[in-house]
Amino acid sequence: MIFGSIQNLEMDRRVLPAALVRGLEYLRDTDFSKLEPGRHEIDGTAIFALVQEYQPAPKGEKKAEAHRKYLDIQYVSQGSEIICYSLENRANEVLEDLLAEKDLLFFKSVQNEMDLILTEGMYVILFPQDIHRPGCRYGDGGQVKKVVVKISKDLL
To answer: For the segment 90-129, what is each residue's pLDDT rounded down to a tens digit?
Structure first.
């Protein structure tokens, strides 16, 4: 997991792989106020963005998840939320395996979760071993516009 701010991209680019920099540049350079929710191609199926708008929910209502084929760059364009984070380990119980259909694995239980607070302009890069529970309410809540850039792990 890498946690950062889009404002620091010029410093971060020196240590990040080119595919991650490309995803972060897309986030920095795109006006999401003019972009509708849904899937937006960046580089075919290798890199694409999912624009989402929603009301964050209490942590207990959200599912923890992980992926195997893609990394996530989860970026808050508007609003704020908590993303709970944990490393995958054998004590975490799988709830639903949708890896073949959607590159998605849901967990029933997760050990040692920590809260990451994302406000406007912040991002978290999540690797396949990173379990995450996105969309959790922070403070009084409020509408969130978030962009998830999916990057094929084959590009790294």
So the answer is: 889 999 999 999 999 999 989 999 999 999 999 999 999 8
User: Could you tell me the pLDDT band of residue 141, with boundaries at 50, 70 and 90?
Assistant: confident
Q: How far apart are CA 66 and CA 58, in angstroms?
A: 19
What residue type is assigned to position 104 of the chain?
A: L
Amino acid 124: pLDDT: 98
CA 86/CA 133 separation, integer angstroms:
9
User: What residues contact 146, with CB distance under 8 A and at least 6 apart?
Assistant: 51, 52, 53, 54, 74, 75, 76, 77, 79, 81, 134, 135
DSSP H stretches of helix in the chain: 9-12, 18-29, 99-102
Q: For 150, how many CA atoms within 13 A lie in the half-sphere containing its CB?
A: 19
Integer Cα distance of 65 and 74 in angstroms = 13
Strand partners, 98: 104
For 33-49, letters b (16+ CB in 10 Å) and e give: eeeeeeebebeeeebbb
